[in-house]
């Protein structure tokens, strides 16, 4: 049964360390939750500070690159007193298995959490095969 | 040819390159973000002449469930990370987003007027504006 589900591999090896370097721009690997359903995969991505305008989903062959640019507020006359995070862009790269129907990927954003749905194409859904008695 | 030179030429070990590499590694440590496994929300605090501004990363939070307590010069945040309840037929295969409750106290650069504190929640970030206590503001004294 498990073979029928899209196998995802996360191509961000630096995800655990918190930052991914790509050329000169630095990215943060956002934290994700992944859920398996009969009809596909649900991905929840934490991208605080990002609006729908700042999100870019790029699919090339079976590689999905997710980039989110959080909105930065310029605070005139303020000095940082305590800084734990920087408004760096988020990026995470996923390799999708062939069963994912790229044309029907759904994306929605609410309160800084991006929800992605990767449907499995009809032909690769698990099918129950009846065994006939001989 | 010296011993060192011969090694360098053979491309085995260059002590200068090694030092440069160590330096690159070290500077990388301090340039990194807070660890992503942090089990508390990350905050930034900005200090201005008349107010302080606190921003807290809380993606997916329910604003009503957040408890903000302002003391004379501290802010305490209490709440729970949003939990995604798996629906019927859904099964977690990966879980990185934080769960559970958190409480954080942040010290402010000056006493604030707790009655005038304003908080808003936008795009998964909590913004708290903390006006400086009137009596604490620096005053210019004119010399007559």
The major sheet of chain A is characterized as: 4 strands, antiparallel
Uncertain segments of chain A are: 1-7, 11-22
Q: Give the C-alpha Rg of chain A.
A: 19 Å
**Number of alpha- plus pi-helical segments of chain A:** 0
Number of strands of chain B: 8
Secondary-structure element pattern of chain B, one letter each: HHEEEEEEEE
Strand percent estimate of chain A: 35-45%
Adjacency order of strands in the biggest sheet of chain A? 1-9-7-6
Average pLDDT number of chain A: 81
Helical fraction of chain A = under 10%
The SS-based structural class of chain B is alpha+beta
Number of strands of chain A: 11
Query: What percentage of residues of chain B falls in helices of 4 or more residues?
Result: 10-25%
- State the separation between the terminal residues of chain A, measured CA to CA: 25 Å
| Average pLDDT level of chain B | 81
The N- and C-terminal alpha carbons of chain B lie at a distance of 80 Å
**Looking at the structure, what is the overall shape of chain B?**
flat
Number of helical segments of chain B? 2
User: Which class do the helix and strand fractions of chain A yield?
Assistant: mainly beta
Element layout with pairings:
The complex is a heterodimer of chains A (134) and B (144).
Chain A: E1 9-10, E2 20-22, E3 25-27, E4 32-37, E5 40-46, E6 55-60, E7 63-68, E8 79-83, E9 90-95, E10 106-110, E11 113-119
Antiparallel strand pairs in A: 1-9, 2-3, 4-5, 5-11, 6-7, 7-9, 10-11
Chain B: H1 3-9, H2 15-30, E1 43-47, E2 51-57, E3 67-70, E4 74-80, E5 91-95, E6 101-107, E7 118-122, E8 125-131
Antiparallel strand pairs in B: 1-2, 2-8, 3-4, 4-6, 7-8
